[in-house]
Amino acid sequence: MKIKNLVVTGEQIFIERHQFLFKALSAHVENIKLIPRNDEWYESRFPKIAIKGILSLMTGSHSKANAVFQKNKFAFNMKSYQAENEIKNLGYTPDIVFQVFGTYSPFRNNFDIPYVAYLDYTTALAEKNWSSWAYFLTPGHRDSWFECERLFYSKAKHLFCMNNISKQSLIKDYEIDNTKITVVGSSGDFLEPLSVKKTFGSKQILFNGSDFERKGGDLVLSAFEVVRKTIPEATLVFVGKKISHDIEGIINPGHVSSTEIHNFFQNTDLVVAPAYCDPFPTFLIEAMNYGVPCVVSAKDGMPEIVENNINGSVIEQLTPENLANKIIYLLSNPNLLTSMSHLAQRKIEQQFNWEKIAEKMVNVISG
Questions:
Q1: Are residues 68 and 179 in the same domain?
Q2: Does residue 141 sit in the same domain as residue 268?
Q3: What 3-state class would DSSP assign to 138?
Q4: Both 240 and 91 in a single domain?
Q5: Do residues 295 and 327 touch, judged by C-beta distance below 8 A?
Q6: Which helix (H) or strand (E) segment is 115 a member of?
Q7: Considering the domain boundaries, does residue 199 fall inside one?
Q8: Whether residue 210 is found in the same domain as residue 70
Q9: Tell me, what CATH number does 339's domain have?
């Protein structure tokens, strides 16, 4: 199957985050049309505030309210109808539709046009690993969401997963045939991998704490206090969120631009990501592209990105002591960091870059 016209559907933020994937895919197809989803009526400012306010009272939690607002049969169907109508009104029939993530389907009634999906997680995994992402008001609401999700997966021509844990969930939790699923990984905010050699000695640690609790912010702060006792010149750059603390050595700019984060990568010896749940963090791939070794938890797809004691370190037991000991050991061994840096960049060059991922996808779709 030669792909002439490929249409991309999905939430606007997800399409924007994967812009370099579509640039890479454009080398293999004649035409790519992006159709980011428009907000539905209930997502405009005042209805959303009112609905989420009511849901917060019902659930006792803003995060649970957000999950209920996003994951329900009504929302899934409304979004799917919108996408189907957008595709219907294109004036031509695309060869394939490429759906980014599973918040809705590109079709609700007519499944004549083949589509594939690119996934990082499933609701079944969220229930097990970070329940606030998958909260439902009643068992019936849960069942209806899973019915929508299962239909979306089963009707797809093929499913591309970022990680193996999602593939196994599709097989076990949704009864999807193994032959319909390919693990392709992901990449970052770049098209071509960097080839600049990394230097070490800054003793700077970098942490993305945009979602403090889920990403293990408590572990990082406690571990850093221990690190400073052994390496008093060590600094921790805590990006993504402003926090209240009284720990010396912490630089906390909050939200930063892409230019600023790239500057931090260049001056960082080590990235830490002891997350309790993180499907396939782009932040790690960005760091490795700059040759920065990462210390991660053994959760979700993180061990598929970072290979323990090869291009970084994986912590099985998440405790402040374990994290601190690993940081101290690595910062005290610049030769080891240099070796890990080289292998981290090699992994990006050989596996986690958009050109190779796009090539894999096109080969599967065209086969």
A1: yes
A2: no
A3: coil
A4: no
A5: yes
A6: strand 115-119
A7: no
A8: no
A9: 3.40.50.2000
Q: Which domain holds residue 154?
A: 5-187+353-366
DSSP state letters, 40-89: PGGGSHHHHHHHHHHHHHHHS-HHHHHHHHHSSHHHHHHHHHHHHHHHHT
d(CA 19, CA 52): 30
CA angle 360/362/365 to nearest 5° reads 110
Residue type, position 105, single letter: S
Between the alpha carbon of residue 82 and those of residues 76, 85, 104, 170, the distances in Å are 10, 5, 10, 25
In a domain, 171, yes or no: yes
Examine residue 165 and state whether it is found in any structural domain, yes or no.
yes
Query: In whole angstroms, what is the distance from residue 111 CA to residue 109 CA?
Result: 6
Type of residue found at 328:
I
Whole-model pTM: value is: 0.94
In a domain, 279, yes or no: yes
Q: From CA 155, how far away is CA 194, in angstroms rounded?
A: 38
Give tens-digit pLDDT for 267-276. 999 999 999 9
State pLDDT tens for residues 85-124. Answer: 999 999 999 999 999 999 999 999 989 999 999 999 999 9
SS3 content of the chain, % helix, strand, coil (to 5): 45, 15, 35
> In DSSP terms, which residues pair with 32 in a beta bridge?
6
